[in-house]
Write a sequence for this structure.
């Protein structure tokens, strides 16, 4: 039998070695079967996967970003999982609900992906700094008002730039800001995915709250990337920032000792967090005699405890509840809070054209950052309304009659 | 009326403003029409264009790589040019034949793209080194045998590494090596695009000639990229390299004085050169009330003499004969030889699956380079055969029944 082609986006060196070992174990269990693995750089993974979809070659099973699934369904490139296959991985109940939702589309019963790795966003903060303000850690970031008070108080106590988020063009801005939009009662799209809501008053209110926090951030003429916010946090130039579980991994790699790690607190964002991650898809062009093997590989990857170490090495969490209940995830206070964020998190609108909406939003949110950075004193509400109204009109025109 | 969306890849810091000014003037002359021009980096270009094709939004006219047209036709994303529109740009007779072919696919009379910029590959060499070695410039690279003799003679005269080509993973290796494959009487796929020929004896012979030249190249453990070859040439560590007209632009930007430039010779490759470049496409989703303006924009871009400086600074040649007959193309001796290569060159198989074949070839040729670099003394012919036979089988399986 020909080897089975499996592709995944790049994971760190240790995680990769663990994954390869697990795949060797899978091969031993399925004698005579070879799994060909190919690693795609995250920067080119989308392009590489589009080639797979377009040329119907190059992979039979792939790990893909959850927000990409709709695009591949739109290209008619994926093979849906059957009910019996879904049942063999434990069905919806075995997974975090937001992660499970990420694998199907609105108005479509098909399960196009099986969730594998989960991530979400939380606030990391220096507990000593927050304690110094006399504020209660538990409520410091619970609402827009409390967040504003916390950051204001930190500033008045000498932490001149207590807050940092990325301001460059990245999908992370959209993933971060979603919590503010949802927390204000707004959304990006209507529930049926047919209408864009970014110019609605509640969505605008959330966006305004997020950008207004710039007055607590380092004022830089150049956009700031995610790693720059990590560095600022590590040097205690800022008191709090947004990131995901991979930030803990980054801190460990930088040699931050356990005591210092214990002085870092984790808080939920003021609204529900965006829950993303990756899922495992089987491409429609999988040969008939590989179909069973492909689903076996997916089941193995999703359920095997042999990969517990892999999750920790990637800095991402398993999407399955039984694996989350094991080892460090269940005992580490940082992970406990992150799991809480995952449990209460949400997904973006699951339509084939979400990729288009996301792409336009990412560009627009980055240009808003450029404008805010260029003139922080301007009326943020006017700026955001002026930008979002034409964007909503343009997207509505594009989405009209399409899903 | 809404602005017309036009996307193009980044060309050059000096060339892009000329194009932007041209587009502004085009808009000014048509008072009711603005051009919304977006410049995209070459690294992101493929992914961005795929998004346009997939989401049917984002650009109505685009400048695209000539070898990408087949893929977009395969995605049913392009609007063909009508016969009157083709006539208005002058039809086939107004263009260099090899370049004109890039606008259509084999077995399909439809013109999907209008050729705009073109760039054949040639050999650049230091004339002084050739004179020192007593070589006849006119015939030094005329055949595989003469090339071999030239490089060996240069080596014997103290130029220990007379030759350099890129050895990293890049489509440029496919484009470069094509001349060797065609020169040996081979081709990558059959004329109808249904059968892979990469394991045929003529193809393997051409590939072997190309890789065997490694003994004349700098021996490095790391892959060599295109810019590194430019630098090796500029500092006269190598006597000859393979590149296109953009190399002259690179040398000018590096401040090379006219006299030194005049000491650089240009020679044709031993076989026909691959003719690539860029084409102008109109996307199928172009608004009905924009169609006429989109075709007019294409006509102006392709035919206007106002862009002669743009071509020169971008380091590419116009695809039209009348523009090539004007200075600097008609007067500069380097350009004269490059135009000769353009006239004698050819495109790759114009089938929708060419992108797939090119992608696989680029990966495999880079792997062969890695092996050759690791052990330059091994049997190159056997190495090539060990790679090409399985590739041919794999390509055949995918191409079967597809175009």
């Amino acid at each position: 039998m020909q080897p089975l082609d499996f592709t995944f986006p790049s994971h760190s060196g240790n995680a990769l070695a663990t994954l390869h070992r697990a795949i060797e174990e899978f091969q031993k269990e399925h004698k005579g079967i070879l799994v060909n693995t190919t690693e795609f750089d995250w920067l080119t993974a989308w392009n590489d996967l589009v080639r797979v979809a377009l040329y119907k070659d190059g992979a039979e099973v792939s790990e893909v970003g959850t927000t990409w699934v709709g695009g591949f369904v739109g290209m008619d490139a994926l093979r849906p999982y059957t009910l019996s296959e879904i049942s063999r991985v434990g069905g919806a109940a075995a997974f975090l609900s937001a992660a499970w939702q990420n694998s199907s589309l609105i108005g479509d019963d098909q399960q196009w992906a099986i969730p594998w790795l989960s991530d979400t966003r939380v606030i990391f903060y220096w507990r000593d700094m927050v304690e110094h303000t006399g504020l209660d850690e538990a409520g410091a970031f619970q609402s827009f008002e409390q967040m504003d008070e916390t950051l204001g108080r930190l500033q008045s106590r000498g932490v001149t730039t207590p807050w940092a988020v990325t301001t460059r063009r990245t999908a992370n801005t959209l993933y971060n800001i979603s919590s503010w939009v949802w927390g204000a009662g707004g959304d990006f799209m209507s529930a049926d995915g047919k209408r864009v809501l970014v110019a609605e008053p509640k969505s605008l209110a959330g966006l305004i709250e997020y950008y207004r926090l710039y007055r607590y951030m380092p004022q830089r003429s150049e956009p700031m990337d995610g790693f720059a916010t990590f560095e600022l946090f590590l040097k205690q130039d800022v008191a709090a920032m947004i990131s995901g579980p991979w930030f803990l991994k980054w801190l460990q790699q930088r040699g931050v000792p356990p005591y210092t790690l214990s002085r870092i607190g984790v808080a939920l964002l003021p609204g529900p967090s965006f829950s993303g991650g990756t899922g495992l898809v089987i491409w429609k062009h999988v040969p008939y005699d590989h179909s069973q093997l492909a689903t076996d590989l997916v089941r193995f990857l999703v359920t095997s405890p042999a990969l517990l170490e892999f999750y920790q090495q990637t800095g991402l969490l398993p999407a399955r509840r039984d694996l989350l209940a094991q080892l460090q995830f269940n005992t580490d206070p940082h992970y406990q809070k992150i799991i809480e964020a995952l449990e209460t998190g949400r997904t973006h609108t699951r339509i084939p054209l979400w990729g288009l909406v996301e792409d336009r939003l990412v560009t627009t949110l980055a240009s808003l950052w450029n404008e805010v950075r260029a003139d922080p004193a301007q009326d943020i509400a006017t700026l955001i309304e002026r930008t979002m109204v034409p964007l909503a009109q343009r997207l509505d025109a594009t989405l009209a009659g399409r899903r | 009326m809404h602005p017309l969306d036009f996307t193009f890849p980044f060309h050059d810091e000096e060339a892009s403003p000329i194009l932007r000014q041209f587009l502004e003037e085009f808009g000014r002359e048509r008072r009711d029409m603005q051009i919304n021009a977006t410049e995209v980096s070459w690294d992101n270009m493929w992914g961005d264009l795929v998004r346009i094709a997939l989401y049917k939004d984002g650009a109505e006219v685009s400048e695209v790589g000539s070898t990408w047209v087949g893929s977009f036709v395969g995605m049913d994303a392009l609007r063909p040019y009508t016969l009157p529109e083709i006539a208005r740009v002058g039809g086939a007779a107004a263009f260099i034949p090899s370049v004109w072919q890039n606008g259509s696919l084999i077995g399909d009379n439809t013109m999907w793209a209008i050729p705009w910029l073109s760039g054949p590959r040639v050999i650049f060499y230091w004339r002084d080194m050739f004179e020192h070695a007593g070589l006849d410039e006119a015939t030094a690279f005329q055949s595989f045998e003469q090339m071999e003799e030239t490089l060996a003679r240069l080596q014997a005269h103290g130029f220990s590494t007379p030759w350099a080509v890129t050895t990293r993973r890049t489509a440029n290796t496919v484009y470069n090596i094509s001349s060797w494959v065609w020169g040996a009487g081979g081709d990558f796929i059959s004329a109808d695009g249904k059968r892979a020929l990469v394991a045929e004896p003529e193809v393997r012979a051409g590939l072997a000639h190309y890789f065997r030249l490694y003994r004349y190249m700098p021996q490095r453990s790391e892959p060599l990229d295109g810019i590194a070859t430019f630098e090796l040439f500029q500092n006269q560590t190598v006597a000859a390299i393979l590149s296109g007209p953009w190399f002259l632009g690179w040398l000018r930007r590096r401040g090379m004085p006219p006299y030194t430039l005049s000491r650089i010779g240009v020679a044709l490759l031993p076989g026909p050169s691959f003719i690539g470049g860029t084409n102008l496409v109109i996307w199928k989703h172009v608004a009905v009330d924009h169609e006429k303006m989109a075709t007019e924009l294409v006509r102006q871009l392709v035919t206007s003499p106002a862009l002669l400086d743009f071509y020169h600074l971008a380091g590419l040649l116009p695809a039209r004969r009348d523009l090539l007959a004007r200075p600097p193309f008609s007067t500069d001796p380097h350009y004269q030889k490059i135009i000769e290569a353009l006239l004698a060159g050819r495109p790759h198989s114009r089938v929708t699956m060419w992108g797939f074949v090119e992608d696989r070839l680029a990966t495999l040729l880079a792997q062969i380079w890695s092996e050759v670099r690791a052990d330059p003394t091994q049997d190159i012919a056997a190495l090539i055969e060990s790679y090409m036979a399985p590739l041919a089988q794999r390509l055949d399986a995918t191409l079967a029944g597809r175009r």
